[in-house]
């Protein structure tokens, strides 16, 4: 297939298959060693997707395969921007493999052209680093033994301190908290609207936008910290509460 025909197929095929990380419940992301593109793996045939999944599983990565249907394409490709992904690796490991830049598949609206008053809250650098961090944890790596994990955590925390986030607010009840299996309680925090929507149910939550500096002041008394994107990377970060 030519590059143009692949581009057309990514927009018009009845279905494609994406490799999903069992650690993040999101597309598995890998960094190209030459171009440094942050890319996901997409396949036209389920058999090829299964072969790719098996290779990743042999490297101790918890992997699943998800089928995407044509009506899902626009939403799926759009969320890759919020993940910090910039490339789609199509049919990797086959004779037809090709890398396509995300911007060539779907173009985002520039904020200058958005409706007046619109605010885009996104943290792609943090989101991407958290994905790599949790994928590495999922292979069984331990922070105390892994220089790569230590570097990822340092980078992740730098991005976290620079961020602006969405918090959920329940009318009359304040901010919700989530209790973990071990009994610890964390307050959910979202890098972007797509992650908040995963959490929202029956319109019971409204949103507020906060900078990193405000998080310790709005932390629920019983919370040990925040859990970033609980239905995605599920990254738990301990934060000391401060008086508002």
TrEMBL record:
<dbReference type="Pfam" id="PF07179">
    <property type="entry name" value="SseB"/>
</dbReference>
<protein>
    <submittedName>
        <fullName>SseB family protein</fullName>
    </submittedName>
</protein>
<dbReference type="InterPro" id="IPR001920">
    <property type="entry name" value="Asp/Glu_race"/>
</dbReference>
<dbReference type="InterPro" id="IPR009839">
    <property type="entry name" value="SseB_N"/>
</dbReference>
<feature type="domain" description="SseB protein N-terminal">
    <location>
        <begin position="152"/>
        <end position="236"/>
    </location>
</feature>
